[in-house]
Fold:
Amino acid sequence: MGLIYGTNCGFVTETPVDDPAVTATNLDGHAIAIKAVAPAGATRITEIGWWHNNNANAGNFEVGLYSHDAGSDIPDTRLYVDNTNARTLAEGWDSVEVDWEITEGTTYWIAIQCDVVGGDVKTDYQNDGINRRSLDISTASLPATWSADATSNYAVAVYAVYDSGGEEYVDIAGTITGAGSLSGVLAVSNVVELAGTITGAGSLSGVLTIAANWQPTDYEIGRRVVAVGNDSFYYEDI
Structure:
């Protein structure tokens, strides 16, 4: 498959599955990072992961995010770190759930570090022009600031799943009672207590005064709910 930026390295929208099947590089006691620009709309990272391509001994690994040193073209300040994670034994992708804020269009470095535990730990790399920087000296943790010990223009099998944020209401499953308001894009196919399926993209706004029980089969773009009550709903075209 190879390493493809946006699919199995750098910023991605979902967890990779397949073996990159390219060249292996040692991670025993090393830290390694990939340079990546946060995509348009990106607001946070929800997962960081990396590929290990051998049945290595169990051990700890760290994940982190760094700012960009434009002058030296290396990672700069460590912004976030999660430093206690158990490495799996089987070949495959290891991942960590995180909740780290990022800014679209900003250059970051996504990094991992693996402890030495008496067995080789390797990941994949590929010469495709995407910058990466690794510490090829022994390091027991992700450093607070990076060093330019080793530099090369390779992609490495390190990724970050990003979220575009926004107001999305996913499966509103409870009863809405009392006085309140609901607004924003509804990106769902089923709204349980609102008794029906809302298909397509639309917006819902207005005060909900009771636990409504209305049953539209299709909510159309351009209509606004203005009142709900007595098992009925009312809307106006906008």
Remarks:
- The chain has two domains: 10-163, 167-238.
- Residues 10-163 form a domain with the Jelly Rolls fold (CATH 2.60.120).
- Residues 167-179, 185-202, 204-221 have pLDDT under 50 and may be disordered.
- The CA atoms of residues 39 and 104 lie 5 Å apart.
